[in-house]
């Protein structure tokens, strides 16, 4: 299925969920009347996820230059990720910033990005983005509206922030070769800002009980796989912090009738790659890092190149042997990346072409594997 076909199918599913549909949107015959869903006849699917899209001012200027000075073009800087992203059945990004509409964009400390970011993400094959971040209210509610409007126009689904309460209540849903994949997103904070008066649903904040309830609701609405994105962690820290460790244990331990409520956790916000780990049988990515970002200073005030390093996580899911059981991750991979001179760089590909980036690739690999993920089958992909 092409990315455009997947997005059309997913949009239909989301619309039906919002209306309260209780059956699978694409294949009603796959659900037995009064009984559990029939085991799907499918080869399974691959899901990829990448880290923060965080356009600082130099990144915005690069996109303007790539557009020839007329508008903004983010496709060239993302092009190196396309071979991985476009071949996945479901591709998820994390949008750390909001979009403006008047051309008055900024890169720090209040991030307001050009809406053409959405076109760049769609062009290389992303199907959806998490939009719950600590910068989700940098442009007040106008930023949420302009961001989600631009993603809608580009055909990219979104979850984590909302324009209306019904939108906040429905996850993004993707159809992936026989499986319905639900995507939910939450953030630890919104930089001290209060939620808009009368709109407590505008940005999803991390709350264990709510996340579990939302995951169970998505499952009841037909989701075979539930993916949760979390903006959490301590910035510039390679290791997961106490909140990440505690919440990952609690969320992965949550079950309904012996089946885990959540099938994959994807972490963002820390600005650096963090480890992958299998917790209670469920893969957790504590931090994917920044896929797109300008040069940044760390907590000590020094320029830290780790802020432009990231991974793409790729997970292959196989259908259950019996209806109602869990879809299993049969292959887990990470692909190291770096944002350099205004371009995403696939580090494995760069090394194969003779670039001297092996130390960066190896550092990312060492961090990702630091909590023993290799013994559970995590490998470095290409």
UniProtKB/TrEMBL annotation:
Ranges of residues in domain Capsule synthesis protein CapA: 46-295
Keyword terms of this UniProt record: Lipoprotein, Signal
Cited InterPro entries: Capsule_synth_CapA, CW_Biosynth-Accessory, Metallo-depent_PP-like
Pfam families (UniProt xref): PGA_cap
Signal peptide range in chain numbering: 1-25
Family in the record: Belongs to the CapA family.
Protein name listed in UniProt: Lipoprotein
Organism: Streptomyces avermitilis
């Amino acid at each position: 299925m092409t990315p455009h076909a997947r997005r059309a199918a997913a949009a239909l599913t989301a619309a039906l969920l919002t209306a309260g549909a209780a059956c699978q949107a694409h294949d009603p015959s796959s659900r037995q009347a009064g009984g559990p869903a029939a085991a799907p006849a499918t080869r399974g699917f691959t899901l990829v996820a990448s880290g923060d899209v965080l356009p600082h001012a130099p990144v915005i200027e690069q996109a303007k230059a790539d557009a020839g000075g007329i508008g903004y073009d983010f496709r060239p800087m993302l092009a190196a990720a396309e071979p991985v992203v476009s071949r996945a059945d479901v591709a998820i990004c994390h949008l750390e910033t909001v979009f403006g509409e008047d051309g008055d964009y900024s890169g720090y400390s209040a991030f307001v990005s050009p809406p053409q970011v959405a076109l760049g993400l769609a062009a290389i094959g992303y199907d959806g983005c998490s939009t719950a971040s600590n910068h989700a209210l940098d442009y007040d509610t106008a930023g949420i509206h302009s961001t989600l409007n631009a993603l809608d126009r580009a055909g990219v689904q979104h979850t984590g922030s909302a324009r209306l309460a019904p939108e906040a209540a429905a996850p993004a849903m993707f159809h992936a070769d026989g499986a319905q994949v639900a995507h939910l997103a939450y953030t630890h904070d919104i930089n001290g800002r209060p939620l808009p008066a009368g709109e407590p649903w505008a940005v999803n904040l991390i709350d264990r009980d709510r996340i579990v309830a939302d995951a169970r609701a998505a499952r009841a609405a037909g989701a075979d796989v539930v993916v949760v994105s979390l903006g959490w962690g301590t910035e510039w820290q390679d290791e997961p912090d106490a909140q990440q460790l505690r919440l990952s244990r609690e969320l992965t331990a949550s079950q309904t009738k012996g089946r885990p409520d959540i099938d994959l956790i994807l972490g963002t916000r820390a600005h650096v790659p963090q480890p992958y780990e299998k917790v209670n049988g469920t893969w957790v990515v504590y931090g994917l890092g920044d896929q797109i970002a300008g040069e940044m200073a760390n907590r000590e005030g020094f320029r830290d190149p780790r802020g432009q390093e990231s991974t793409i996580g790729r997970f292959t899911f196989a259908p259950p042997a019996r209806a109602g059981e869990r879809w299993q991750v049969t292959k887990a991979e990470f692909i190291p990346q770096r944002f350099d001179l205004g371009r995403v760089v696939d580090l494995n590909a760069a090394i194969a072409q003779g670039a001297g980036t092996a130390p960066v690739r190896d550092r990312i690999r060492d961090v990702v594997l630091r909590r023993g993920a290799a013994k559970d089958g995590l490998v470095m992909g290409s």
